[in-house]
Amino acid sequence: MESTNFVTIQAKIDEYKDNLARVEEALKRNADKVRDEEARTQRERDLTKLKNDLEKAIEYNQDLLKIAENRVQEFFSSVRLTVANENHKCNAYYEQDKNWHPAHINKVNEEEQTAEIIFLGFADKYKLPASYIQMLVPPKQPDLHEGQEVEVLLQDGKWYPANIQIFNEQAVTVKLSRWGHMHELSYDCVRFCTNPQKRPLPEREIFEIPNSLKILPNDNEHVRLKKKKKIKALKKAWRQNQIEKETRDYTSSWKNFQQKAQKKSNESMFRTPEGIDSKVGISTSGKAMTKNPERIKYKDYFEQFTKKDEEI
């Protein structure tokens, strides 16, 4: 799973503490080994300043860490789980990275208030308390319409922009904005766009693993290796086809460009001139030069308009 701000802040604190220990050790060595008084004093000032900066950085990041922990605590759920929540999507809290991730609920124990979940995109099962689970709130059907831009949650645990094609009481069919693939999803996998003004990415082809070659949790090691080899071979062939297609498109576009260039320039700039005074390589050869307009002094120009006003 992706690293979070919580983990990043903790890593910075550890790094600053290591550097602080080195600076303190350098201060001790400076007092014992540097004999030149002026050099020792200057080095001590620099190390002391660096020590103070590191201590401030540690204190600042520790405050950020507390804020991050408090925000995580605010998201803990107090809603009781029921059997009706099984086979639904949720956000589940993962203790190792202190963050929430999309997950699928397999089973619910109402007495213990625990649930067996699988984080989307991973195969491992986890048993979590109800406070670590937040049910996703699906949009209401009256608020949806065909062609509407939404975001959908897929099996890899990521949200993608899509357009609604068809929807009924049980499910909604969407078309991914980027690749054009169709998916039939439950309503808890749909949410309104967080940034509706952002245009969808252009469509492009991607490699899809056939359902028969998808690795299942109950596959043994031999079957897994066999499927991986077939997937690798299919992916290699797909990449080769993509390269050939791009080459054909590039060649076609280049030919079109050449044809347009030839049509645009039918005559050569080095054609034989027609007139006696014409020159080779000049398209306007043989024609008279452009004459500059006759200059009129400002005074004469002003007098012309003054006479017109008097006549009127």
UniProtKB/TrEMBL annotation:
Chain spans, region Disordered:
261-288
Residue ranges occupied by any Tudor domain in the UniProt entry: 83-143
Does the keyword field hold ATP-binding?
A: no
Q: Does the keyword Signal apply?
A: no
Q: Which UniProt keywords apply?
A: Coiled coil
Ranges in coiled-coil conformation:
6-71
Q: What is this protein called?
A: Tudor domain-containing protein
Lineage start: Eukaryota, Sar, Alveolata, Ciliophora, Postciliodesmatophora
